[in-house]
């Protein structure tokens, strides 16, 4: 595996971790029988699956995963908590998730353009994650 492949897989894996952390953070604010809860559960599983795939590929070449930067993670957590303490209705939560998807698509697309020598498997996996983010955004549009 070349460096571009390893770096792309690490960024893809880190993005999955950011997404699942965010989804798990908002869950306590959602009503139990909410369609939003079901939607987030569905996409959380998809992110976990992609993250697991990245993890397996990195393990196969004896490389470590990349965790999201601690400062960014802390800022995101505090920012989300503050927003939800003020207003935790479905539209607000869906909007937070929507914004996260948009940021994920932008970041992942940038990494695809940056790591041009990455293997086709790693690029396929990253495109799959971008498609998942786009699908999630499209479904969230009915709730924002």
How does this model look, in words?
With 144 residues, this protein is mainly α. It has a single domain (3-140), classed as Ferritin. It contains five helices and no strands. The longest helix has 26 residues, at 35-60. The model has no long low-confidence stretch (mean pLDDT 89).
The CATH homologous superfamily:
Ferritin, core subunit, four-helix bundle
Q: How much strand? A: under 5%
**Overall mean pLDDT:** 89
Number of strands: 0
Radius of gyration: 15 Å
- The CATH class: Mainly Alpha
What letter string, H or E per element, gives the SSE order? HHHHH
CATH topology, what is it called? Ferritin
CATH architectural group: Up-down Bundle
* Count of discrete domains: 1
Provide a short characterization of the protein structure:
The protein is 78% helix and 0% strand.
């Amino acid at each position: 595996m070349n460096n571009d492949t390893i770096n792309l897989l690490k960024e893809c894996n880190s993005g999955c971790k950011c997404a699942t952390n965010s989804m798990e953070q908002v869950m306590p604010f959602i009503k139990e029988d909410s369609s939003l809860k079901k939607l987030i559960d569905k996409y959380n599983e998809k992110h976990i699956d992609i993250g697991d795939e990245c993890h397996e590929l990195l393990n196969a070449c004896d490389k470590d995963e990349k965790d999201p930067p601690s400062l960014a993670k802390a800022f995101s957590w505090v920012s989300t908590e503050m927003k939800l303490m003020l207003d935790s209705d479905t539209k607000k939560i869906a909007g937070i998730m929507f914004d996260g998807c948009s940021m994920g698509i932008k970041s992942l697309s940038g990494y695809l353009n940056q790591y041009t020598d990455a293997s086709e498997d790693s690029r396929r996996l990253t495109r799959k994650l971008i498609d998942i983010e786009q699908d999630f955004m499209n479904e969230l549009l009915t709730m924002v």
